[in-house]
From TrEMBL:
The active site is at 366, 366 (nucleophile). Belongs to the class I-like SAM-binding methyltransferase superfamily. RNA M5U methyltransferase family. PANTHER family: 23S RRNA (URACIL(1939)-C(5))-METHYLTRANSFERASE RLMD, RNA M5U METHYLTRANSFERASE. GO terms for molecular function: 4 iron, 4 sulfur cluster binding; rRNA (uridine-C5-)-methyltransferase activity. Keywords: 4Fe-4S, Iron, Iron-sulfur, Metal-binding, Methyltransferase, S-adenosyl-L-methionine, Transferase. GO terms for biological process: rRNA base methylation. It holds the Pfam family tRNA_U5-meth_tr. S-adenosyl-L-methionine binds at residues 245, 272, 292, 340. This is RNA methyltransferase.
Length: 413
């Protein structure tokens, strides 16, 4: 049975929130001020109809919107959407008592996502390839995706065929597709153990279709062209499944903010360095020490540095910074630092940075809540927060990146 609701505000995941008997109700694909009918199940409800639409409601860009489980806010007017996403950063800092001017959100263009993870499963009707409906295990097959680069969308039929060739399980598996300078890099996870015949057929398909690489559970099956991405002036051959920022434009924005802040630093530490998206750019002006726990990513960074020209020295260290953060004494060897941890943030590492006398620090984050926690630690340790720039690279989703720049008066050593 449907119930009438009035939407008061948007929640942190982009759902509309209505007050009702028994508590708040979260209703996806609604906007503040709207009157809607929805079928309620405890604290959530499924939208049935919009009785009174917000003036900020617009037509979505994709036919799969509300079904595929990817985008949450295609129906929200662009400027209002950007303000909402910026406000997520503002509120996270406010909770921790951090006052700072927050820059306007750096927007994300459609058709710019270079890395997409599809879900796939074999059915009696054929191979399903698409995204999983929210709060469900149902795969919604897709025919378009306005957030992704055209190279990915244009290859959907090829990717569906390849999924059928590598599938050795009745269960759902995943296929991560990355656009590189060499072509599409396909990393498959949990598709089952490939037989010899499957390997041969899949390899022939990859070569015939001009794909760069196919890997399954980290093992390279075939690599006709080594997948390469560009970090500044340096070409990096990335390992299978390597982390990359979702869009090249957002990565460049982050790198520019970090690079400008650390321009005076002669020795820089890059913590959670990945394949070197910051380190290899910073090495144009500074000596860099890169610390990263993932061995293949670190090896790619080191190899790229050794084959590059015109860079300052780059050293690398495999280190689990969650279990063994760089100590403040180690950090005191540097006059600049950037850290870009996963969503969990870098609480223990931040405590060591706070005790150090590194004068210039750049904090990069994909989670405003853990960013705020880590910034609070740094500020309490004597750092001054100079700026925070929110960056959108997950268009129409609730996710937002941010780059925070901090300074501490240099101490005598």
């Amino acid at each position: 049975m449907s119930t009438r609701f009035t939407i008061a505000r948007l929640g942190s995941q982009g759902d509309g929130i209505a007050s009702a008997e028994g508590g708040e109700v979260f209703i996806p694909f609604t906007l503040p001020g709207e009157t809607v009918t929805a079928a309620r199940q405890n604290g959530r409800a499924t939208l049935m109809s919009v009785l009174e639409a917000s003036p900020l409601r617009i037509d979505p860009a994709c036919r799969h919107f509300t079904e595929c489980g990817g985008c949450a806010l295609q129906h929200y007017e662009a400027e209002a959407y950007r303000q909402w996403k910026r406000e997520k950063v503002v509120q996270a800092l406010k909770v921790k008592g951090i006052a700072c001017d927050i820059a306007a959100l750096v927007p994300c263009a459609p058709h710019s996502r270079r890395r997409v993870t599809f879900s796939a499963r074999r059915t009696e009707a054929g191979m399903l390839l698409g995204f999983v409906r929210a709060l469900s295990s149902e795969i919604i097959p897709i025919e378009e995706c306005p957030i992704s680069l055209p190279a990915i969308v244009g290859a959907l039929d090829k990717l569906r065929a390849l999924a059928g060739l590598v599938c050795a399980t009745p269960k759902t598996f995943h296929m991560t597709v990355t656009v590189t300078a060499s072509g599409l890099d396909i990393a498959v996870q949990d598709a089952g153990k490939l037989g010899d015949s499957q390997r041969r057929i899949a390899s022939n398909f990859v070569m015939a279709e001009g794909l760069a690489r196919l890997s399954v559970d980290g093992e390279i099956i075939v690599e006709p062209k080594k997948p390469v991405v560009q970090f500044g002036s340096v070409a990096v051959a990335v390992p299978p499944g390597a982390f990359l920022q979702a869009t090249e434009a957002a990565e460049q924005t982050m790198a520019s903010l970090v690079g400008q802040h650390l321009a005076r630093a002669k020795k820089v530490a890059d913590l959670f360095a990945g394949c070197g998206s910051f380190a290899l750019r910073l090495a144009a002006k500074s000596e860099v020490h890169a610390a990263e726990g993932d061995a293949p990513a670190l090896a790619a960074l080191d190899r790229a540095f050794r084959f590059a020209s015109g860079l300052k020295r780059v050293t690398s260290e495999r280190r689990d910074l969650f279990r063994r953060p760089l100590t403040f004494k180690e950090l005191n060897a540097f006059d600049g630092l950037v850290f870009d941890p996963p969503r969990a943030g870098a609480e223990d590492q931040s405590k060591q940075i706070a005790r150090s006398d590194v004068p210039l620090v750049a904090a990069v984050s994909c989670n405003p809540v853990t960013l705020a926690r880590d910034l609070r630690i740094l500020i309490d340790g004597g750092y001054a927060l100079k700026s925070v720039t929110p960056i959108d690279q997950f268009l129409w989703s609730p996710h937002v990146e941010a780059v925070a720049l901090l300074e501490k008066p240099k101490q005598r050593r």
